[in-house]
């Protein structure tokens, strides 16, 4: 079956949709849809693609995306091996721009929310205390019906609109140039890289996977991903390195080779280019931010 790049939420009742996901892995297909989306990861790890942003995700990850912004939460390889103990869970909220009427967000009182919706066109990674509050509210949505449900969603959006605790994900220059006909080819490239990033990846081999010449593939990929293919591979590798650093199981040298780098100097250089930190600085910063005394209860 061919993956579908454009899809829509199955909205059956109510003005917006709330779904609990509990599966062996998250949807592995690169896709976009016309709804706004809030997605909270409750369980699972992997690599998150939002437009031209590539980052590691884990439980607690919370992202708000606007309409037609391509995205993918690609679960780690272990979730595709049929182990019943490896499961993912999440809550996803879909709503369209007119879910409360065609002019609701154009009212003067909605200026802050309208600005938030515009920001979501690049994708928002929600952080800090705001994430704690919204996590609690999103979980509450599952248990609510009717007007109470709408009120809580508006409260979620209002909280986020007043917060500065988020990162914009896609670059300013990113635009969705994908067409349904692109889907199988880009999916094959994603799958190949995510399966083989720990090894050497030649341009000739991946171009063959895409059934293109190397020069044509380079132009094609950059036009759709807003980055070179080699930048894409580097971000996949560094995203995996971030996961391993967070887990604190391996030394930096071991992580370097596990992520497909041949030399520690190249690994350190690429890590700093992508994250702005050295591997050890990243690890210390993450651990410091996640100490119990530095986290407020939501």
Automatic annotation (TrEMBL):
The keyword Transcription regulation applies. InterPro entries: Cupin_2 (IPR013096), Homeodomain-like_sf (IPR009057), HTH_AraC (IPR018060), RmlC-like_jellyroll (IPR014710), RmlC_Cupin_sf (IPR011051). Pfam families: Cupin_2, HTH_18. Signal peptide: none annotated. The keyword ATP-binding does not apply. Keywords: DNA-binding, Transcription, Transcription regulation. Coiled coil: none annotated. Residues 187-285 form the HTH araC/xylS-type domain. GO terms for molecular function: DNA-binding transcription factor activity; sequence-specific DNA binding. This is HTH araC/xylS-type domain-containing protein. It comes from Adhaeribacter pallidiroseus.
């Amino acid at each position: 079956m061919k993956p579908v790049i454009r899809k829509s939420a199955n909205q059956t009742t109510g003005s917006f949709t709330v779904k609990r996901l509990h599966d062996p892995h998250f949807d592995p297909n690169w896709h976009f849809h016309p709804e706004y989306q809030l997605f909270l990861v409750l369980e699972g790890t992997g690599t998150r693609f939002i437009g031209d942003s590539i980052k590691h995700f884990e439980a607690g990850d919370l992202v708000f995306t606007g309409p037609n912004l391509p995205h993918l939460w690609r679960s780690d390889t272990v979730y595709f091996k049929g182990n019943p103990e490896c499961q993912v869970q999440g809550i996803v909220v879909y709503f369209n721009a007119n879910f409360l009427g065609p002019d609701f967000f154009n009212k003067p009182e909605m200026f802050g929310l309208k600005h938030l919706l515009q920001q979501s066109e690049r994708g928002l990674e929600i952080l800090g205390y705001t994430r704690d509050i919204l996590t609690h509210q999103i979980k509450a949505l599952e248990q609510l019906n009717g007007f109470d449900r709408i009120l809580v969603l508006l409260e979620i959006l209002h909280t986020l609109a007043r917060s500065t605790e988020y990162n914009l994900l896609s670059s300013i220059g990113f635009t969705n140039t994908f067409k349904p006909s692109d889907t199988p080819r880009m999916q094959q490239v994603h799958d190949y890289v995510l399966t083989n990033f720990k090894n050497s990846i030649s341009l000739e081999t991946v171009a063959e996977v895409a059934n293109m010449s190397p020069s044509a593939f380079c132009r094609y990929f950059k036009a759709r991903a807003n980055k070179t293919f080699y930048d894409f591979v580097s971000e996949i590798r560094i995203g995996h390195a971030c996961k391993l650093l967070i887990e604190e199981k391996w030394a930096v040298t071991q992580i370097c080779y596990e992520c497909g780098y041949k030399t520690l100097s190249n690994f350190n250089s690429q890590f700093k280019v992508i994250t702005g930190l050295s591997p050890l600085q990243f690890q210390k910063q993450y651990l410091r931010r996640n100490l119990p005394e530095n986290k407020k209860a939501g």
